[in-house]
Amino acid sequence: MKIHVPADHGATDILHEGEEIAVVCPHRYPGDTYNSLWFYCEARNDTDRDLPCAQIVIERLATGTDSYEPFWKHCLWSADGKAWERIPSEAQRFGTTTLMVESPLAAGRSLWIAETYPLPYAHYEKLRSDIAAPAALGITIRSERIGGSVLDRPIYAYHIGKSEGKASRSLLLVAGQHAVEESGKIFAETVLKGFHSGQFAGTAIETMLDVYNVTVVPLCNPDGCYDGRMNSNAQGVVMDSPEDDSPEMAALLSLVDAIKPAVSVNCHGWANEWGSPPYEDVYRWTDEDPLFAYLKANLPGCSTSGAPHLMGDHFRLECYAHPRYGTECIITEINWNCYIPPDGSPARRPSCADIRTRAVEYFEAIAKYCLQ
Ligand SMILES: [Zn+2]
């Protein structure tokens, strides 16, 4: 077997490539706060014989409180690197710090493995060209390059409004600071594409545009995305930490100065199972913060983690915007390992579509708050 690691989000080290077994491990970036738990690679049967039981082993996975775990107990596989599904339990075996995936693998075929739904850098180049096409009737989307990363990859903001809009307030939605928190990236992309396609026509989300212009920054840390880093940029600066003086952060802060957002939604993601399903939380300064209180009362499951997520003085973007512009700030953490459908059916491991549905649930609740 041969292992192929995508250059633009792979972050996987190859330890061994044998005839029927390959061994990899997450790539460790010293700047990242957490032990690495991200991996994303393709195992190819490059021989001319079918393998009845190919084995792909992921080693050096962290356990317990060392990495919030167990993120890696619910990984995904794919035959083509595009359509992903949870690995069936009969196809995987867990060690203390290892995951072994077993599958028949025909000659010339591939098996992709990833910790969760990967959104590599190339995905964002495609998103940019998709959004450049005309938006739905009555919606205007203007793209702006707000700055560049350490390695001079562009950071784009998309300003969304009604074509003859008179909205005077701003809502800012950012994602991808922590580059493998894919459910947060899915959140921002779902909002951007939803406006672009007209999916929100007739809903509170569209009505919100009468009062608010919406600015979406779908990828705030493009180098981190390219490298597959946990939460740092190319220089190892942890994004949105109090010490974050990165060019990526400078781009966001100048955007904040320009649009003076009344509301800021910073889309992160996680996969913990602490508390009760769906194990999510929303960062706030206090439980009385109006937006947090509204979400807690109106968005089932949004505050179900085992411990409250309080902002304190831990986050550079939020601690900049709030005192200057009175910005109401939240940081969301959609869970990519747990979803409770609104129809009351039991909690399940979300598909990518479920995560998009959850993102709309969040954004619709935020819109209704804004329209109060
Ligand atoms: Zn995060």
Structure characteristics:
372 residues, alpha+beta, Immunoglobulin-like, Aminopeptidase, 2 domains, 5-stranded antiparallel β-sheet, 17 strands, binds zinc ion
Short description:
The protein is of the alpha+beta class and 372 residues long. It has helices at 121-132, 182-197, 204-208, 222-227, 247-259, 290-298, 316-325, 352-370, and strands at 2-4, 12-17, 21-26, 40-44, 51-58, 76-78, 85-86, 92-94, 99-105, 110-114, 139-148, 154-162, 169-175, 212-217, 263-270, 282-283, 328-335.
Question: Could you please describe the fold and organization of this structure?
Answer:
The protein has 372 residues and is an alpha+beta fold. It has two domains: 2-114, Immunoglobulin-like (Sandwich), CATH 2.60.40.3120; 121-370, Zn peptidases (Aminopeptidase, 3-Layer(aba) Sandwich), CATH 3.40.630. The protein is 24% helix and 26% strand. It has eight helices and 17 strands. The protein has helices at residues 121-132, 182-197, 204-208, 222-227, 247-259, 290-298, 316-325, 352-370; strands at residues 2-4, 12-17, 21-26, 40-44, 51-58, 76-78, 85-86, 92-94, 99-105, 110-114, 139-148, 154-162, 169-175, 212-217, 263-270, 282-283, 328-335. The strands form three sheets. The chain has a seven-stranded mixed sheet. A five-stranded antiparallel sheet has the order 1-4-10-6-7, with no helix packed on it. It has a five-stranded mixed sheet with strand order 2-3-5-9-8, with no helix packed on it. Helix 2 crosses helix 8 and helix 5 packs parallel to helix 7. The longest helix has 19 residues, at 352-370. 47% of the residues are buried. The mean pLDDT is 96. The structure holds zinc ion. Zinc ion is lined by residues 178, 181, 231, 268.
